[in-house]
Amino acid sequence: MTTTRPAVASDAELDHWRTVAERVAATLGEDALERDRRGDDPTVELDQLRESGLVDLLHPAEFGGGGGHWQSALLAVRILSRTDASVAQVLAYHYINSSNIGFAAPEADRADWYRRTTAGHWLWGDSVNPVDPDLLLTPADGGFRLNGRKRFSTGASSGDVVLAAARIEGGDRDGETVFVVLDHDRAGIHYLGDWDALGQRLSASGSVDFVDVAVDPADILGSLGDGPFQNLITPGIQLAFGNIYLGIAEGALEQGLEIARARKNSWFLSGADLYRNDPFVQRVVGEFSSGIAAVEALADRAARRFDETVSLGDAVTAEQRGRIEIEIAKLKVVSTDLGVEVANRIFEITGSSSAKASVGLDLFWRNVRTHTLHDPVDYKKLEVGAWELNGELQPLSLYT
Q1: SS3 of 261, please?
Q2: Are 276 and 261 in contact, with CB atoms under 8 Å apart?
Q3: CA-CA distance, 311 to 72, in Å (whole number)?
Q4: Is the pLDDT of residue 54 over 80?
Q5: DSSP 3-state assignment of 149?
Q6: For all residues of the chain together, what is the average pLDDT?
Q7: Cα separation of 325 and 271, whole Å?
Q8: Percent of the chain having pLDDT more than 90?
Q9: What phi and psi values does residue 262 have, to the nearest 5 degrees?
Q10: Which H/E stretch holds residue 147?
């Protein structure tokens, strides 16, 4: 990914996208709970992402994009997660999916992909889940036919295009795994709408069936290779996860503080005049606020280092890729613990009345508890420990 822009985001860039994301987050927060209960695909909400420019944030400015950096994109994901972690997840996956233009597409093809993406303000969904059996591409009629099913296809049912990972079976490219990009309404693509998790309900993460879908050679974005640069996609998605969990913790604390401040009495044994003056309430708030500040610092540092690594392009070495993966694994560990704890224990500072369904404080816990199960955090701890003890890195994959 050759570029002459600065390797990292400027303060002005970060401030700009922070303002944009905060505006969108405020709008999403107005009815996030009601939309969660309806369980609709986030069609209208994704239009807000397009109109705000967030969808095009990472695309190069010379092709009509926002020209932003990963740190800006992930800050936007974090801010949206404070009010609507489902829509934030769709945006995060879009950033990862569409970044494969730079990571996987041949250099000669990238300009065309970028121009079409920005011209249509495409939101990229995915159907890549590596733990499912491969989708199969079989040669036919000068192109291919795509068949199979993928679960957990975030954004596919609501996005403009679907990025799918498929293995070619037969022909000159037999055995090769490639990314294909298909328009949402391509004949033979069936969105099953079977996502029924307790959280992240609006992330459009249901299964997709592909039944004899016609795939033109021009629909193939590139191969899923084993080079260090191409495989930066995995630390990228894990970095997005860390920011989602952090944003959920921030949002839970923010709503908890609003509830605690509004309470007009205190626990009868506390001796305090107001709930907000109870020393035990203050202790928990201090604990949460301090933990959030620490994880924020790590998230920002990791994002900046990720930008620096990505800026190296094909010159990225296996060691450099490994080091950024370990940095991000550390964030995954602490952001998971923080997100789950804050979303769970926030009720300790808000009192029993905050458990009413109408308050909706449970939304944060349901969202973070659901998504933190994406891949076992214990294996991230193992990854960090094996590196610290023995200098060992895990094999390259879509999880490590």
Answers
A1: helix
A2: yes
A3: 15
A4: yes
A5: strand
A6: 95
A7: 49
A8: 89
A9: -80, -15
A10: strand 143-150
